[in-house]
Write a structure and sequence with these properties.
The protein is an alpha+beta fold. Helix 1 links the parallel strand 1 and strand 2.
């Protein structure tokens, strides 16, 4: 498109994709004659309008042992367009490893990465710079793997070991993209290609994970992972002011359940149920070692750490005289009435029992 003006110095705008340089000069000379520019003081200035460049982060590997400085990316919010939150989220191009670049083209993550806040995507926090990498705890099954983001003090790959993983806003665990999410969502094709080309996962494992979550929406898969247990003694966060829910990854399917002992039924209060305590603690399931449970599949809950203070929500509540917890949890077994650990039978037909059977 030409933008013409009659001044002592005129500017001619063109696009590289529409005009050749020779044709541009020819057009300028014709326009010069039409405007009767003949004096030496009248000149034409030829400039070009450069197309906008979309700067994207490029990553070449997700293997922590092969990271290079060039894999460093900054996911911090950028002040591009304050009225458009999506313009402040990163776009990443993943490039297959060198052994597969001849047969694979770089793949853009068609949807920007999101930092989850209360289950919805939002901007990453400030100073979110470091390296994307694949994490798999060898104590857990291969289906538990996920891509995490390691925050580093500088842009050098050598600082990876001294960094820390980006955490979720609620502090319950690290920000991560679960392998099942990567396997089932087309927008993560680039990550899937990198994981396979790096040899971090096999195509068979990826396909197995995809089948496990078939029929579950992408956002629901992400929520499942944040409350997923893969082994019996895997730690998880117990929030006493809620009905805790969790999911269990079995060999062929996923099972979910809720735990109801945090609620208390009261006939003295106008409400049917209430939560006697508030606060959070880190817990895990364990096999019961009580003599009466020998040879049976019975689990107890071990309190590993108090994360936030456990306090009573009702000063009139008298532990031991109503259903629910016997006392405010402390580090050790979670106790019920009679100062005995809460025991959960895994041989029953409830969803909680089925989950425990999968874990055992």
């Amino acid at each position: 498109m030409l933008k013409l003006c009659r001044t002592s110095s005129c500017t001619h705008y063109l696009s590289y994709s529409k005009f050749g340089l020779g044709r541009a000069h020819l057009g300028v000379h014709r326009w010069q004659r039409r405007c009767n520019f003949s004096g030496p003081s009248e000149s034409v200035k030829l400039t070009t309008r450069r197309p906008k460049v979309n700067f994207r982060r490029r990553i070449f590997t997700l293997d922590p042992s092969r990271l290079q400085d060039s894999d460093f990316i900054d996911l911090s919010p950028k002040s591009r367009n304050p009225r458009n939150p999506r313009s402040q989220l990163p776009s990443i191009v993943s490039v297959p490893s060198i052994t597969q670049r001849t047969s694979s083209l770089p793949s853009r993550l068609r949807s920007v990465l999101s930092y989850y806040r209360n289950g919805t995507g939002s901007r990453f926090p400030e100073n979110s710079h470091g390296f994307l990498y694949y994490h798999h705890d060898p104590r857990l099954p291969p289906t538990s793997g996920a891509v995490r983001f390691r925050l580093t003090p500088n842009a050098h790959a050598s600082s990876f070991s001294g960094g820390t993983d980006l955490m979720l806003p609620d502090g319950r665990g690290p920000w991560a993209i679960w392998l099942a999410t990567i396997a089932s969502a087309a927008k993560f094709l680039g990550l899937k290609q990198l994981l396979i080309s790096d040899g971090l996962v096999t195509p068979e494992l990826v396909e197995h994970c995809r089948k496990l979550v078939t029929g579950i929406s992408g956002s629901s898969v992400s929520r499942l992972y944040r409350h997923m247990l893969f082994t019996l003694e895997q730690p998880w966060v117990l929030d006493l002011a809620t009905l805790p829910s969790f999911s269990v990854m079995g060999p062929l399917h996923i099972e979910g359940a809720q735990i109801g002992f945090t609620k208390v039924q009261s006939i003295e209060r106008s409400e049917r149920i209430f939560f006697a305590y508030s606060g959070r603690c880190m817990v895990r399931f364990e096999r019961s070692l009580a003599p009466e449970h020998a040879g049976k599949r019975v689990a107890v809950i071990r309190v590993l750490e108090i994360l936030t203070p456990i306090v009573s929500t009702d000063s009139t509540f008298i532990p031991g005289h109503k259903g629910g917890l016997f006392r405010i949890p402390t580090v050790g077994s979670l106790l019920a009435k009679g100062d005995r650990p809460i025991a959960i039978k895994a041989d029953g037909d409830s969803r909680l029992s089925r989950c425990l059977r999968l874990l055992m």
